[in-house]
Design a protein that fits this description.
443 residues; 55% helix; 14 helices; alpha+beta; 8-stranded antiparallel β-sheet
Length: 443
């Protein structure tokens, strides 16, 4: 008994030493660092997924928006005409800007029914009710990248693994902060940056600086990411339910008798906005079968979650009456806390500045892994230190800039020559076609 007590004290004493913390930080980096780097990088890019998707698919941008939106009933009729076999509930997500498309979601299409998550996404021009494109989640660059970020493309197993990585990131951040802390007397030395002392010291200082200035945001991302992967823990902790992104935890059915005059989408949204006249319409989910009801998501001014706001109104399709209302202003403290997790993780709650800060935080996670790995390789004699020749770097940058300008000029000259050579032939062909048309009508 006495021996076991001594051993336990020695173990606790060892765990509190700098060596133990350094090993914990190192082993976590070597085992989970690569996955955290991939998640950080993919998460940073995914913050601007809507902008990137529009850049890669210019047809999704309405260049000169004019007039009013078509009615939701007409838009939904166009969607059903384009996809007549997709019977069941659809969710229409309203555009986030005047230039954006309405996105209609069909959760379980037959083409991807057995996949973990691969809904059909239909983009519709709200001004003309024209279906522009239909795509499946995971088949576009931005959705594929988001799958990497949320579950490493490993379906449900990957989803839970990514959640566990949030725990590892917590430990890595805390051990890194402990290892950095020098005490108040040596704080000045701990903040030094040595760009002219060789490559390895520069890499090490970069690792310490990035870790210090990103640790707070990384801890927020780690904990919110963990709770998003394990929503049951969040529900237990906050005493809430149905606070998972896009969910309500409520099954509401119609009790009215089916008739020949069902309530349309436009009428249902009009009724739903009665209790919230200043709220912005964000989503409309259509009913299924005879007992289905409309679920309408509205965003009140004080809500931080823009894409998936919690203000919800259920409207009966047969009677046109409101069945139930969920108002975030009446949430408990636990429910309010839970409602912040998703927008806080995405940076949406912090506006454009917050999204930019979150973007650089994800990038820093990738750089921290690379710089830490390089430092470890150096300490194990795998790579060697070398001086940094900044003059050569300047010359290289200047050369790249010069070559880039020269390439652009050369490309412009080639295009200009091509246009000059082909223009006479185009004009000649146009004249011949015009003459042929005139001769035809003269006959």
């Amino acid at each position: 008994m006495f021996l076991s007590t001594i051993m336990m004290r020695l173990q606790i004493k060892y765990l509190l030493t700098r060596t133990a913390w350094l090993k914990a930080h190192l082993y976590l980096a070597l085992s989970a660092g690569f996955f955290l780097a991939v998640i950080g990088l993919s998460g940073s890019v995914s913050i601007y997924k809507a902008d990137i998707d529009s850049l890669l698919n210019p047809e999704l941008i309405i260049r000169n928006p004019q007039g009013q939106y078509q009615t939701l009933d007409k838009i939904f009729a166009s969607i059903k005409l384009a996809h007549p076999t997709k019977t069941g509930s659809w969710t229409l997500e309203m555009p986030s800007s005047a230039n954006g498309m309405i996105t209609a979601w069909f959760e379980k299409p037959s083409e991807t029914f057995f996949e973990f998550y691969a809904p059909l996404m239909v983009s519709v021009n709200p001004y003309t009710a024209e279906v522009i494109t239909s795509r499946f989640w995971g088949n576009t660059f931005t959705t594929w990248l988001l799958n990497i970020h949320t579950q490493l493309n490993l379906d449900s197993y990957g989803w839970y693994f990514v959640g566990m990585l949030g725990i590892f990131l917590n430990i890595s951040c805390l051990t890194g902060l402990y290892l950095w802390w020098p005490g108040f007397k040596q704080i000045k030395d701990a903040l030094r940056f040595r760009p002219h002392k060789g490559m390895m010291l520069l890499v090490f200082d970069l690792h310490r600086w990035l870790g210090l200035f990103s640790v707070f945001t990384l801890l927020i991302l780690a904990n919110t990411g963990f709770l998003l992967s394990y929503p049951g823990i969040l529900d237990s902790f906050t005493g809430s339910s149905g606070m998972e992104h896009g969910q309500t935890d409520r099954t509401i059915s119609s009790t009215a008798i089916p008739n020949n005059h069902p309530t349309g989408l436009s009428a249902a949204t009009f009724v739903a906005q009665g209790p919230f006249p200043k709220a912005e319409l964000r989503r409309v989910t259509t009913p299924t079968a005879d007992t289905g009801v409309y679920r309408i998501n509205l965003k009140q001014k004080n809500e931080v979650n823009r894409r998936h706001p919690y203000t919800t109104v259920w409207v009966d399709r047969w009677s046109g009456q409101i069945k139930e209302i969920r108002n975030p202003n009446q949430f408990t403290k636990g429910e309010t806390f839970a409602s912040w997790i998703w927008p806080l993780h995405t940076g949406e709650a912090l506006g454009a500045t917050g999204r930019l800060l979150w973007f650089f935080s994800g990038i820093s996670l990738f750089i921290l892994y690379i710089s830490g790995l390089v430092t470890w390789l150096f300490k194990n004699g795998i790579i060697k230190d070398r001086p940094i020749d900044y003059e050569k770097i300047k010359e290289l940058v200047y050369q790249i800039k010069k070559e880039g300008i020269n390439s652009a000029v050369s490309l412009y000259i080639i295009i200009e020559k091509y246009i000059k050579k082909t223009t006479p032939y185009i004009i000649k062909g146009y004249k011949q076609a015009l003459n042929s048309v005139l001769k035809y009508f003269k006959k």
